[in-house]
Specification:
7 helices; alpha/beta; 7-stranded mixed sheet; two-stranded antiparallel sheet; single chain; Aconitase, domain 4
Amino acid sequence: MRVLLPVATGALRPRGGRMSLNIELIRGSARILGDEVSTDIHCSSKYLPGKDTAYIALHAFEQIAPGFANAFQTGDIIVAGANFGINSSREQAIHVMQKMGVAAIVAPSFGRQFFRNAINNGLPVIECDVDGIASGDAVSVDLTLGCVEVAARQIKRQTTPLPPAILSLLSAGGLIPYLQQYPKWQ
């Protein structure tokens, strides 16, 4: 028997120390990163042994964007170049970005393992052309309709809407919270 989670509305909300998502519309300020960002290098303890997630979140992406973590505000949206999360197999990268308060990540493409880890951990990732979006721009992301918009720059990009099953996972805060909420899902 398959149980479907109803699609929620609104914005980010705290849930058990994590941010879960009301998926109708996400709004935040754009924080820009470039192409080919390996989150294994920039968001893991692999290169900062003995450091916890909170420490790494304070220093995430420093090597490629000095001051990035310091300027980041809860609810901001990472707008990145091609292949964000390339060569990234660690879920810790997602946990670091959630600790930072990342509301969503928009990029033309993602490393496939990173993409799946993000969905499984409740972090929205949207494939979209990001040309013309600048740091600090007010960005709106509609996961249900598949639209990324920067009204001040008259940018409106259609994306492939995420499937209902993925929206359900995101709304629950990820795969584990979804399965805890719906243990009879098959």
